[in-house]
Automatic annotation (TrEMBL):
Pfam families: adh_short
Species of provenance: Aspergillus lucknowensis
InterPro entries: Fungal_SecMetab_SDRs, KR_dom, NAD(P)-bd_dom_sf, SDR_fam
Domain Ketoreductase: 2-196
Record protein name field: Ketoreductase domain-containing protein
Membership in a protein family: Belongs to the short-chain dehydrogenases/reductases (SDR) family.
Length: 253
């Protein structure tokens, strides 16, 4: 039975991932920790009540060292010496840039949220992950963070977000290289352009589809996924017109 911790889990992809996991049998999923700054909202409360205690909200503001320490201690008390199996770094922001690259003014905030906080959360929970069986860290990235695909996404006005996801990919590689000898599987994965508050109503896929396909990789993760930049597979989208093709192949860095 695996234990998961998902950041940014009060809505969107994070909540959808938790919902998918909670639907799996208890023989596969022991606990899903939903970490966010404000973990108590109607959607989370409803999922917690339906899960029979397997979905557990966790108050976590990684900007606050005391909040981060308390979150680690809380999860440690609940896993009872069995460790944490999977960490999903999902929290992130995506502001719009009004104009070309010279107009970007929010690099500091976006980098801090999308990269630095992912690092702080990962390093804080690493001791519990070492005790777990799966030792999996999945960083939710984006195809717009691919330097190889940059020309295809030139019209998408999220400059700081693109650069931060490229940086998150490099952070992923650093962890993948440093902890491979301990049996860790650390990878970046793009869940697709999803219909969430972040992705908007015009996005390609329902959030449920992105969550389901993302979890196929996370649940089966092993050494073969370590250090990779993964793209989900959605039948019918392998050769779709436009930049977004969900073919299940590794994305170019």
């Amino acid at each position: 039975m695996a234990t998961y911790l998902i950041t940014g889990a009060s809505r969107g992809l994070g909540l959808a991932l938790a919902t998918e996991l909670a639907a799996l049998p208890e023989s596969e999923i022991r606990a899903v920790f939903l970490a966010s700054r404000q973990p108590h909202n109607p959607n989370v409360t409803d999922l917690v009540e339906k899960s029979g205690g397997r979905v557990v909200p966790v108050q976590l503001d990684p900007n606050d060292s005391e909040s981060l320490r308390a979150a680690v201690e809380f999860v440690e008390s609940r896993v009872q010496g069995k460790g944490l199996d999977v960490l999903v770094n999902n929290a992130g922001i995506q502001p719009i840039t009004a104009g070309k690259a010279e107009k970007v003014h929010d690099f500091t905030e976006v980098f801090h949220t999308n990269v630095t906080l992912a690092h702080l959360v990962t390093s804080a929970f690493l001791p519990l992950l070492r005790q777990g069986q799966k030792k999996t860290i999945a960083n939710i990235s984006s195809s717009v963070g691919s330097i190889g695909f940059a020309p295809s996404f030139s019209a998408v006005p999220v400059h700081a977000y693109k650069v931060s996801k490229a940086a998150l990919n490099m952070l992923t590689i650093q962890y993948a290289l440093d902890y491979a000898d301990e049996g860790f599987s650390v990878f970046a994965i793009s869940p697709g352009w999803l219909r969430t508050v972040l992705g908007g109503e015009m996005a390609d896929l329902p959030v449920e589809t992105g969550a389901k396909e993302t979890l196929k990789y996370i649940r089966q993760a092993g050494p073969e996924l370590n250090g990779r930049f993964l793209n989900i597979h959605v039948p019918g989208w392998e050769n779709a017109p436009g930049p977004n093709r969900y073919d299940g192949k590794d994305l170019p860095w």
